[in-house]
Amino acid sequence: MSRLVRGRRDGAAGRGAERPMSVARLCLIMVLVLAMAAIVAVTLGETPFAASQYLQALTHPGSPPGEVLWTIRAPRVAMAALVGAALGLAGATMQGLLRNPLADPGVLGVSGASGLGAALCIAGGLAAVPGAVELGALAGALLAGGAVVAIAVRLREPEALILFGVALSAFGGALTALVFNLSPSPVATAEILAWLMGSVENRDWTDSLRAIVPMALGVGLCLKAGRGLRMLTLGEEAARMSGLDMPRLRAFAVAGAALLTGAAVAGAGVIGFVGLAAPHMVRALVKDDPRRILPPSALAGALLLVLADLAARLVPTDQELKLGVVTALFGAPAFALLAWRAARSWRS
């Protein structure tokens, strides 16, 4: 009898060990890690400070060390965290909607259209106008997002939506190349290239505040689509029979991802890989639940981009590395390792 009781307890313990980690607990841990990474990113930089200078920056924010920490580094870290969170959440939403682990924010073509809008503003000589390039990037994203939403509510197959997004992305890339070809000056060409490679350099608190509004709208739409994404794991037919409004779900998910992606591109340029990799960093901890994975994916994206920007600043090069280059160089091997581990678990 005692063996039977122990066997039941062991079985219960085993089932409890298989339960996914609480989302609240996981998010709390990731928030703490993100806070520590942000402190390190604000503290470290190209210019080393002594302990007395750090104390001066804390007690007198208007001092030269305080200006470096709170006017240059801190807004840069805040923008990196916002952009990373937006891309991570958009990637998780797209992977849940399309039921494809390789989906990312760029699959909709919004990134390409947003980059095109920024390139047109730069080529048109509007780079000197504060906020003009960012507004152009956001406008391009909204136009592309509106087109994708209009298509999404009419299509039933996720493959068709992917193909439409690929076509839109290719068209945006072709038009951007045309802008390069017809660029009025080498300076404008260099500025467009720098924008497309991505960076949060020279960002201030105003840039972060400007990005919060569209990002907040995108977060609300993605979270509203979360319940539908969970039901979608049962299959589209089963989800529709349970009363799920598929056109509305697609509209919310696509519009939310488009807003997040457009705001991210407007704030930091085109940055790849983050939206693809961030959901996979936390997927195993939430047992691949499309709804539960949304908040941790946003935090993982923020952490990933804060660390990537720190690496871009600390790598000893004559010219600072672009953020999009760093995310690809350091992130692609890490993502390959995650994919290899996932493949091993699938085989077992």
Q: How would you describe this structure to a colleague?
A:
With 348 residues, the protein is mainly α. The chain has one domain (75-339): ABC transporter involved in vitamin B12 uptake, BtuC (Orthogonal Bundle). Helices cover 76% and strands 0% of the residues. It has helices at 2-18, 23-43, 51-59, 64-98, 110-123, 132-152, 158-181, 186-197, 205-224, 226-232, 236-241, 246-268, 274-282, 294-314, 323-347. α14 crosses α15 (323-347). The longest helix has 35 residues, at 64-98. The radius of gyration is 22 Å and the shape is globular. The two termini are 34 Å apart. The relative contact order is 0.16.
Produce the secondary structure layout:
Blueprint lengths: L1 H17 L4 H21 L7 H9 L4 H35 L11 H14 L8 H21 L5 H24 L4 H12 L7 H20 L1 H7 L3 H6 L4 H23 L5 H9 L11 H21 L8 H25 L1
Q: Based on CA inertia axes, which overall geometry fits?
A: globular
Q: Estimate percent helicity.
A: over 70%
State the domain count: 1
User: Can you tell me the CATH topology?
Assistant: ABC transporter involved in vitamin B12 uptake, BtuC
Feature tags:
mainly alpha, globular, ABC transporter involved in vitamin B12 uptake, BtuC, single chain, disordered N terminus, 348 residues
Summarize, please.
The chain has helices at 2-18, 23-43, 51-59, 64-98, 110-123, 132-152, 158-181, 186-197, 205-224, 226-232, 236-241, 246-268, 274-282, 294-314, 323-347. With 348 residues, it is mostly helical.
